[in-house]
Design goal:
Elements: E1 10-11, E2 21-25, E3 42-48, E4 51-52, E5 57-58, E6 61-66, E7 69-70, E8 75-81, E9 87-94, E10 100-102, E11 106-107, E12 115-121, E13 130-131, E14 135-139, E15 143-153, E16 166-174, E17 181-188, E18 196-202, E19 208-213, E20 217-223, E21 232-233, E22 237-238, E23 249-251, E24 261-263, E25 279-281, E26 286-289, E27 292-295, E28 297-299, E29 306-307, E30 317-318, E31 320-322, E32 324-327, E33 335-342, E34 351-358, E35 366-373, E36 378-384, E37 399-402, E38 426-432, E39 436-441, E40 444-450, E41 458-465, H1 480-485, E42 488-496
Length: 498
Amino acid sequence: MHRSIVVTAASAVVVAVAVVSVVTVVWEGNPRPGPGPEAAHTQVRVSAPQTRMPGETFRVRGVASVEGASFTGLPVGLQRQDATGAWSDVGEVDTVHHGHYAFPEVTLDQFDGTSTFRTYVDPGLTDEPVYSDPVQVRYVPQTVRIEVQPRLIAPGVDPEALSVAAARAVVTVSPARAERPIDVYVRAAGSQDAWQPMTSLTTDDSGQAYFRAWGAQEYRAVAHAWHGVAEATSLSAELADTPAGAPTFVDEFDTFDPAKWVDRPGQDVYGVAPQMMCEKASAAARSVANGVLTLGVLPDPEAPGPCTSADPADGQLQHLLQGHVQTTSFTQARGWFVARVKFQTARAGSYGAFWLSAEGYGRGRAEVDVAEFNGRTIWGDSITANWDGDGSPLRSSPQKFAFPSPLSGAEYPVPAELQSPSEAFHVYAVHWTHLGYDFYYDGNLVASLQDQSAYKPSRVILSNLTRDWNQKNMRDLSDPEHAVEQQIYVDWVAVYED
C-alpha cells in the first residue's frame, strides 16, 4: 500500500484571518496521478490570506501528517500559475517540527499582482507529486476615506441646540486591517488653510476608526505606512453640503407646531385596543417649554370616576391621558431618523418611545421602535410587513434587541455620570437602508437588523404610553411629584436622507 501527502489550501477571509481546511481521504492500491490521489488517513492543513495590498507581505504555510504521524525534512514545493494556466516553481521548503512548513515572506509585487498558488509534496513514495487545491491571493489597492454622518453625539443633563451635537465621523481603511495607526487633520471648511493635526486613532477589526466632527470644519485622514504598505491619504470630508448637514425634517421645539406635529389620530379615544380601554392620547398630556417637548401620563379631569370597561383582572383603574404625537404630514422612507430624549425616571408604569410607523396596511410597511424604555430596559425592534386590512397574516415577528446598560459607549464613550437613560439626554437614531436598520445611541452602533421588506414612507412618532394592566405599577398620579416621574423629555428631532 502506498502513502501520499495531500495538501489542500483554503483562502482566508479578508482582514488576513486564516481559514483552516482539513482533508482526510482513504485509499488502497496504486495512487492516481494528478491533483489529489487518495491517501491513507492523510491530513494536511494549509492557510493563506485572501488579499494583500501593495508592499504587504504574506506567507503560505501548512502542516502535514500521515496516519497521525508528522514528518520532519519532507520537501514541500510552492508553485504559481501564470496567465496561460501553466504552473512554475517559485519556492521549496522542508517540513519542520510536527510537520509544519512555511515559505518565506513574499509580496504580490514580486509576482505582478493577483496570483494563484498551490503547494505540492513529492516524498519519493508515490509515482507522481501530490498537489494542493489552488488558492488565490488578490492584489488590492488600499483606500482611505472619511464619511461624516449626521449629528448623533450629544449626551448631557440639559437641553442643547442641535447645532451643539457632534456628527459621527468614520474613517474606513480598505482592505480592513486592525490596529493600523491613523492621523486625522482639520481645517476651516472651504478654506485653503494648512491642515492641522486633530487626533490620532487606530483601526478596529473592521478597518474603521471614529471621531467627532463639527459643521464648520473639514477633515482628512492619513493612514500610516504599515507592514510594508505605503502611507495613504483620504479625500477631505465635511458635514456641510451633505445630506447629513441638511435635515429633511427638524424641530427643536421652540413651540408645539401643529404644522409639524399632531396628537395621534385614532388614539384620542378610550377603548382603541383591548389593553387600552382606560387610556387615550390627549393634548393635555403634552407641553413645550424651554425648547423641550414633555410627554406625560395624568388622570383625566373630565372622567374622574373609575374606569369599568377594562378587564376586571387588571384591578381598579382610572381614566388616563397620555402624550402621543406624530408628524402631521411629514413622511420618509429610509435615511436617518434621530431624536435627543431623556426618558422617565419611574421604574414602571409607562413606556417612553421614539418610533416610526407607516400608515395603512399591506406589504412594505413597518413599525420600527428606535428606542423604547419601560423604566428598567431600553430596547429597539422592527416589525415589518404589517397585517392586511382583510386580516391576512402578514405581520412579522419582531426583531428585538436591548441597549446596553449602562449606556457606556464603545466607539464614543459616554461619561459615567451621563450613562442613565432617565438622568441624561441621549441621542437615539436609526439608519434605515435598503438592507435593513442600524441603531445608534450617542453615535455608538448598538444593533443591526437585516430586513429588506419595508419600503413605504413612515411618520415619526413620540409617545409615553401605558396599558390597563400596567396602571397598577404607577404611583398616585394626582401627586405632582409622582406625575413628574412618568414624564419623558424630547429636546429635538431631525431626519436626514442618505
